Amino acid sequence: MQSKEGKIVHSCISTALLDFYHLRSNYSTRVVLHSRDSSGKHVHALSAALDLVNIIKVEAIIGAQTGMEANLLADLGEDVEIPVLSLSQPGLARHLTDRNPIFVAVTQDETVLVAGITALTEMFIWRDVILLYERTEHAGDLIPSLINSFQGKKMNIVFTSTISASSTTEQIIEELQKLKALETTVFVVHISHFLVPRFFMNAKKLGMMSEGYAWVLTTSLNFLNSMESSVIESMQGVLGLKSRIPTSRSLHNLTSRLRRKFYIEASHMEVQELSADEIWAYDATWVLAEAVDRSWIKISTRLNQKDYKDTESFKLGGVLLEEILQSRIKGVSGEIQYSEQKLIAGKLDIVNVIGKGERRVGVLTFEEEKTKESQPLKNKRKLLSTSDLETVIWPGGVGLCGRINCRMESELTTTNVKCSGKKMIKNTGYGINVVRQVPTSTG
What we know:
Layout: H1 4-23, E1 29-36, H2 42-56, E2 60-63, H3 67-80, E3 84-86, H4 90-99, E4 103-105, H5 110-123, E5 128-134, H6 139-152, E6 156-163, H7 169-180, E7 186-190, H8 196-205, E8 214-217, H9 229-234, E9 239-243, H10 249-265, H11 276-305, H12 317-326, E10 328-331, E11 334-337, E12 347-354, E13 357-369, E14 380-385, E15 392-394, E16 398-400, E17 409-413, E18 429-436
Parallel strand pairs: 2-3, 3-4, 5-6, 5-7, 7-8, 8-9
Antiparallel strand pairs: 1-18, 2-18, 9-12, 10-11, 12-13, 13-14, 14-17, 15-16
Helix pairs in contact: 1-11, 2-3, 5-6, 7-8, 11-12
């Protein structure tokens, strides 16, 4: 775990286990954390996961740095019947849960972001936009859904541009120069967190982060606090969405403890606040620990009924997944449940990159509408704004008084939607092992 976010995620997971068993010291099971680092390489990710499964004999895995790693871990988890809790971008996870019944997405569903971006773009009555996206294995699934969503609202994509993670700085500049020559100056950008620094820093050098331009980033801005200050400086005026985590005493306490921990152990690494993904990693670990204990109780009961004695050879597998999906807890991030193998979350903040971070300028609330088929992938996302949009500061420091009544609806049919993205987490995953504790009687 070499990256800043990787280290924070690891600390969130280990802290969650300490907190959980501090309050539940009487539990007869213990979740033991085994960490592996892929260094951002897919081959290393698979190798590390195989080591966790075959050598350590873990019962669950939390991880996935990229969409490719999510694919590898999902397939591996299905083969060995081990639940995989994915920290990857959830658009990909949505399609993985359809194919891999033992895969759970524990971060924001990216299809919700697509519907939110459509509603956000409609607020400013933009009819002509330029779409730039990163060429990835699953971009061909997400982009059509975004285009269809725009077309449904009579918005015209006048030009489509692509770059890739392997694009050189010269190639990125060349593509930006093409866009600069066009008349339209409203850009909707779908790129991974890895490309954000090079993309926006070069856009600023070309004068495209100045007055007259508008930039909307489709990927969640949860990653922003892990970026260098120079990157944030280049993104001034960018508009996007961020998963909403309500302030609470438990969140304040967790943040303060981790801030203090890193001040002592790594004083060079300042932790100002925790990202939504880091908080969700904490909550997912708590859910997992609770589900593990319930699973062992259920398995022990079944084995006793069949007069079996060897519980060590019995794998948790599907029983553990069933308990995870049935879990519903009040976590640090709010109410947590994964009933459809994905995080069920209800609100997104509309954020404007200003100064050293972002400022919330509005809130979108969404709900899922069930179709007659009652199948998750055939449902619709309806987004309703719960507040008026506040003043947005665009590139160049231009403010638009946004007391616009933005109470509107935007629907995105998510049938066959498969999305992907990447995260800044430099770890493959965390293997979860279960230690069965046998209570001893005294007296």
